[in-house]
Predict the structure of DUF2510 domain-containing protein.
Amino acid sequence: MTHPPAPPPPAGWYPGDHPGTERWWDGTRWSDAVRPATSPGAAVPAPVERIRWAGVWWGGRGGSGLYLAFGIVFVLLALPPLAFALGADEAWRAAFMLAFSLVLLVGAAALFTNAHFCRVIERRHPTSDAPPPHR
């Protein structure tokens, strides 16, 4: 299976041709804009990459492992109310606990989906210290 080429680095200020300077990359090409570096040798923080799917922006900071862990926690938190709902004597208590556990499970599904898109982004950019685009 062939993967599409990685997208170019996002627009931003990157280390310039001369020490102590930064040059603007507009997302497709280098501009003529140059400025003094914010601090000599300092790395420019990379903007957060996001993926739009089903009308929602996914991805972000934290990494896939964090979202996966919180998704697992949400599933585990949903189990006791679900068990209580199945054994409840009164219908309103069972309905309330069932609704509560469903809310937690929907939250877990959203966290797992975000973990997936974070993983997609991590595969596009294997390291956060990716070099700036070629000039």
